[in-house]
Design a protein that fits this description.
The complex is a heterodimer. Chain A is an alpha+beta fold. Chain A has 10 helices and 41 strands. The chains are: A alpha+beta, B mainly alpha.
C-alpha cells in the first residue's frame, strides 16, 4: 500500500475511534445471551435435537456464508484425501485447471467471452453451496496454528510493507510501478543523464510515468489535488510557477511523461463520464463502464503555453504505462462487476477504447476457463496522439505487468490452495505480448509454480525469461525460453523463507530471502538450461530494493532486524561487493536507527540512485516526521550522509528527489524545497 | 475447540469493538450493525467446535461477520427499490436518522463503495488484515484485493478532501 492509501485507512481508523458499542454487545451481555440460548436447548435431548434442526436452518444463512468463506480459504487437503466420498471430490474440484496450450487464444465472439464470466460466477456460487453442505460436518482443521505462524512472521518484518512490498505497483494507480528497473540499465540511464535526473525505471529505454519530472530547466510537478500539473521554472535557482496544465475538478491525473526530444507532455489520468458518451451524471464510480482512463498529449515547445494535441480513452482504472520509441503504452484494468451484465448487451461486459468495443479477436482468452476482468493495453503514437494505434484486452482474473525492452508480460497467480504454509501452493500463468512501433502481438503463454514477489523477480535477457518464485515455504528459479517453456530450474531453495527482493544483471541474478537473516543468493544464469546458485551471504535484516551501483557493487535498501526480538529497528543501507559472484561480501552498511521506514521498499520511483554522480537519495519516516536523506558512497569511507532535512510538504503521494545541475529539488505535496548539492544548504523553496 | 459461554465471551472481548465498528461501516444503521454482530456471534458460538485454535478466533469471527453483513445487505437491497442510488440514500438517511453512530463523512465514503470493496476496506481497517489474508477470507486473488482496495481508497479519498 502506498502512503496515500495508508492515510485513508488511518483516517477511517481515527474517525471511528470514538464509536461506542451498544450495551447489548458488551461481553457480559453476550455471555448472558449465549447462556440463555443454551438453557433453552438444554431441557431434554429430544427437544434439543428438534430445536437444533430449526436453528441450523436459521443459522445457515449466516453460518453458510461465514464458514463457507473460511473453509474455502483454508482447504484441508489431508482431510479431504483421507475422507472418501463427496468431500474428496469437492477437494479435487478446487484446483483450477490450467491449459497446457503454448499459444494465447483469441476470442471468437463476445458470447464466448461471456461464457468465461459466467463460469467465474458459477464457480463462486458452487463453492458457496458446497461449503454450505460441508459446514455441517467438515472440520476446518489446522487453519489456526499454521496461520498464526505465518502471521507472526509477518509481524516481525512489519506487516503491510513486507507483505505488499513491490506488489503494490500494479494495484496502486499512483505508482503503477510494478516494473522495476534492471539495475544495470537504470544505472545507465541515470548515470549518463545529461545534467538532470530521470525517473528510476525498470528497463533502460522504457520510460515510466511519474509525479515529478524535469527536462533540465523546468520542473513538472503533479499538485496534491491531482487536478493540475505545475510547470516550474528553476532558472537562476529561483523557482517560479510559470504555467500549468489543468484537467478540471471532476477528473484527475495519476502520472505523466515529459518527452524533451519531442517536446511533449503526456498525462495519464481518470476522466469522468462524458468521454464514453453515455449519460454519466455523478454516478461514474458506480458504473464501471463510465470510468475511463485517458491519456492527453500536450505540445510543450513553449512550456509556458502547453497546447493540447489529442486524447484517447479506454475503459477501466489506470494500471500502468510505458513509453518507448515515441509510443505510449497504456494499461488499464476493467473489472466486470457481476450485476447487470447481459449476454445480449456486450457493452455491459466488454471494454471499450475511445468509445468503441474492443473486437473479439483482440481479446486474449485466459489459460483457465474463467475470468472477471480485462487488462487493456493500448498503444498511442505521440505523433498522432488523438488516435489509438492498437489495442488488446487480456482477459483474466487480475494480474500484473512486467515490460521488457521488447515484450509485455502479463502474469497472474492461480491460488490453488490457501497461504497456509502448506506446499500445495500456487501456479503463475504468464502471457507474452510483443510491442513494436505501437503494434501489439500475442506471442506465447506459459506457467510455473509459485508466485512472484514483484516485477524485479522477473526479467528478460536474450529472449529468455528468468523468474525467482516463492511457493508455499520454498523458493525457486526458473528459466523460460522465448516460447515460455521452462528450460532450466533450481527448486527447493531457502526453505521456510520467501523472496524479498531480486535483481538480474545479464547472466547473474541476485535475490534476497528472509526469515531471520538476510541471505543474498547469487545465481549464475550463463547457461539458461542450468542455472546454479553460486553464492550465499547471510546478514541480518533484509533488503527490499536492490540497485546496481557502479562496477561490482550492489546497493540494498531495506530494514535492519534485531536478531533477538525480530523487530525491525531501522532502515539499513548495504553495499554488497559482487566482484566475485561465488563470494558476495557485505562491503559496508549503514543503519539509520531513527528511521523506521522508507518509501523505496514499495515504490522504486521514490529512489534517486545515481552511481555516476554518487548520489543515493530517498525519503524516510522518523519520529519527527518525514526527512529526505542524501548519501554518497566510498569503498573506504562507506556511506556518508550528506544531507538529512525535514520535508515540509505533506501531500498524499510519496516524496521525490530530482536534481538539475547542482541543485536537488525535494518535492512533497505542494511544497518544493531546493538544496545545493555542493554544500547541501537550502537555496530556495516554493509553495504551489 | 471446546468452549463455554464464558470462554467465548473472553475471546469476544478482545475483538468486539472492532467487530461493531466494522458492522457499523457495512450496515445502514446502528440497529442493523448491532443485529449483525449479534447474529454473527450466535453463529460463531454454535460452530465454535470447528475452530481449532483460540488464536484464529479473530479471523474466524471476522469472516463470519463479514458474511453476515453481506447476507443482510443482500436481503435489504432486495427490499429497496432498485433505483435508489447510493447518493440519495445518504441524503435521506442523514435527514431521517440523525444518530448514525458514525461520522457522516466516513459513512458517505463507505457508500461510494461496492459491497465487496466495503468488506475489503472494513477488513483492512478493523480486522487489520493484509491483502493476502483478505484474499483468503473472501476467496479472491490477493492481487485483485490489492487493486480493489486501491480503487476503493481512491474513491474514499474524494470525500476526505
Amino acid at each position: 500500500m502506498d502512503r496515500r492509501e495508508q492515510d485513508v485507512l488511518e483516517w477511517i481508523r481515527q474517525e471511528t475511534e470514538e464509536i461506542d458499542v451498544p450495551q447489548k454487545l458488551e461481553p457480559d451481555n453476550i455471555r448472558r445471551m449465549l447462556e440463555e440460548k443454551e438453557a433453552l436447548e438444554r431441557p431434554g435431548k429430544k427437544k434439543r435435537r428438534a430445536y437444533r434442526i430449526g436453528l441450523a436452518a436459521a443459522a445457515c444463512v449466516a453460518v453458510a456464508g461465514g464458514l463457507a468463506a473460511w473453509q474455502a480459504a483454508r482447504p484441508d487437503y489431508s482431510d479431504r484425501t483421507v475422507g472418501p466420498g463427496s468431500m474428496a471430490d469437492a477437494g479435487a474440484e478446487m484446483a483450477v485447471e490450467i491449459s497446457d496450450s503454448k499459444s494465447i487464444a483469441r476470442a471468437d465472439s463476445y458470447d464466448q467471452v461471456y461464457g468465461y464470466l459466467e463460469a467465474y460466477q458459477k464457480q463462486l456460487e458452487e463453492e458457496e453451496k458446497r461449503m454450505m453442505a460441508e459446514s455441517g460436518g467438515a472440520d476446518s482443521k489446522a487453519s489456526g496454528s499454521a496461520r498464526t505462524d505465518t502471521m507472526k512472521e509477518e509481524i516481525a518484518v512489519t506487516e503491510d510493507s513486507a507483505m505488499d512490498t513491490g506488489m503494490n505497483g500494479s494495484a496502486a494507480p499512483y505508482e503503477m510501478s510494478d516494473t522495476p528497473a534492471a539495475a544495470a540499465e537504470a544505472e545507465g540511464s541515470a548515470g549518463m543523464a545529461a545534467d538532470y535526473s530521470e525517473t528510476n525505471v525498470r528497463q533502460e529505454g522504457v520510460d515510466e510515468g511519474d509525479i515529478v519530472k524535469t527536462d533540465g530547466r523546468y520542473l513538472y510537478v503533479l499538485e496534491d489535488n491531482g487536478h493540475e500539473i505545475a510547470i516550474v521554472d528553476t532558472m537562476d535557482q529561483n523557482m517560479k510557477k510559470a504555467a500549468s496544465v489543468e484537467v478540471g475538478d471532476k477528473n484527475s491525473i495519476y502520472e505523466f511523461y515529459v518527452v524533451p526530444k519531442q517536446k511533449k507532455l503526456v498525462l495519464v489520468g481518470y476522466q469522468s463520464g462524458e468521454l464514453l458518451g453515455d449519460a454519466a451524471g455523478d454516478d461514474v464510480y458506480n458504473n464501471p463502464n463510465l470510468s475511463a482512463t485517458v491519456a492527453v498529449t500536450y505540445d510543450i515547445k513553449d512550456p509556458l503555453n502547453p497546447v493540447e494535441e489529442g486524447r484517447v480513452s479506454q475503459s477501466g482504472n489506470y494500471s500502468s504505462s510505458r513509453m518507448a520509441d515515441g509510443y505510449l503504452y497504456l494499461f488499464s484494468e476493467f473489472y466486470v462487476w457481476n450485476r447487470d451484465i447481459s449476454p445480449q448487451e456486450p457493452r455491459s461486459y466488454v471494454p471499450a477504447v475511445n468509445g468503441e468495443l474492443i473486437k473479439e479477436s483482440n481479446i486474449y482468452l485466459p489459460p483457465v476457463s474463467q475470468a472477471n476482468m480485462y487488462e487493456i493495453i493500448t498503444a498511442v503514437d505521440l505523433a498522432n496522439p488523438g488516435k489509438t494505434k492498437d489495442s488488446k484486452a487480456i482477459f483474466s482474473k487480475g494480474g500484473q505487468v512486467y515490460v521488457s525492452g521488447k515484450n509485455i508480460y502479463f502474469y497472474e497467480t492461480e491460488w490453488q490452495s490457501s497461504f497456509l504454509g502448506s506446499s500445495t501452493g500456487c501456479v503463475t500463468t504468464i502471457r507474452k505480448v510483443s510491442y513494436r512501433d505501437g503494434e501489439l502481438t500475442a506471442r506465447a503463454q506459459g506457467k510455473f509454480d509459485g508466485y512472484l514477489n514483484d516485477s524485479f523477480s522477473i526479467d528478460e535477457y536474450e529472449g529468455n525469461l528468468r523468474v525467482v518464485t516463492t511457493d508455499g515455504d520454498t523458493n525457486a528459479v526458473y528459466v523460460l525460453d522465448k516460447d515460455l517453456e521452462i528450460i532450466g530450474s533450481i527448486e527447493d531453495l531457502a526453505k521456510d523463507e520467501r523472496v524479498y527482493s531480486a535483481r538480474f544483471m545479464g547472466e547473474i541474478g541476485y535475490f534476497v530471502t528472509f526469515r531471520e537473516t538476510d541471505p543474498l543468493f547469487s545465481v549464475d544464469l550463463s547457461d539458461p538450461k542450468k542455472p546454479e546458485i553460486v553464492g550465499e551471504l547471510k546478514i541480518p535484516g533484509f533488503s527490499e530494493y536492490l540497485h546496481f551501483y557502479g562496477e561490482n557493487q550492489l546497493l540494498g535498501i531495506g530494514m535492519n532486524v534485531d536478531e533477538k526480538t525480530m523487530i525491525t529497528d531501522g532502515v539499513k543501507l548495504t553495499m554488497f561487493d559482487i566482484s566475485d559472484k561465488t563470494d558476495v561480501k557485505e562491503a559496508n552498511t549503514c543503519i539509520l536507527e531513527n528511521v523506521y521506514s522508507t518509501e523505496v521498499g514499495y515504490d522504486y520511483k521514490a529512489a534517486l540512485v545515481d552511481p555516476g554522480r554518487n548520489i543515493i537519495g530517498f525519503a524516510g519516516y522518523t519520529e519527527g516526521g518525514q526527512r529526505y536523506f542524501l548519501f554518497e558512497y566510498d569503498k573506504k569511507e562507506g556511506f556518508t550522509c550528506n544531507m538529512e532535512e525535514d520535508i515540509n510538504g505533506n501531500g498524499m503521494r510519496s516524496t521525490r528527489g530530482v536534481y538539475i545541475g547542482d541543485v536537488i529539488y525535494v518535492v512533497q505535496g505542494n511544497i518544493i524545497e531546493a538544496y545545493s548539492l555542493k554544500d547541501y544548504k537550502k537555496v530556495d523553496d516554493l509553495i504551489l | 475447540m471446546r468452549c463455554d459461554a464464558k470462554t467465548f465471551a473472553q475471546m469476544y472481548e478482545t475483538v468486539y469493538v472492532d467487530l461493531y465498528r466494522f458492522a457499523l461501516c457495512m450496515m445502514r444503521s446502528r440497529q442493523d450493525a448491532e443485529d449483525a454482530v449479534s447474529e454473527a456471534v450466535t453463529a460463531a458460538y454454535e460452530n465454535i467446535g470447528k475452530l481449532r485454535e483460540e488464536k484464529a478466533f479473530r479471523n474466524w469471527i471476522f469472516t463470519i461477520l463479514s458474511n453476515t453483513c453481506k447476507k443482510k445487505l443482500g436481503s435489504a437491497a432486495r427490499e429497496q427499490s432498485a433505483s435508489a442510488d447510493a447518493y440519495s440514500l445518504i441524503r435521506t438517511e442523514a435527514q431521517e436518522e440523525p444518530d448514525l453512530g458514525l461520522a457522516v463523512d466516513v459513512r458517505k465514503a463507505f457508500f461510494l463503495l461496492e459491497e465487496e470493496e466495503q468488506t475489503i476496506i472494513g477488513l483492512s481497517v478493523f480486522g487489520g488484515y493484509n491483502s493476502q489474508e483478505i484474499g483468503e477470507a473472501l476467496k479472491l486473488n490477493p492481487n485483485t484485493v490489492r487493486s480493489k482496495r486501491s480503487r476503493a481508497l481512491q474513491k474514499m479519498e474524494c470525500i476526505l478532501r
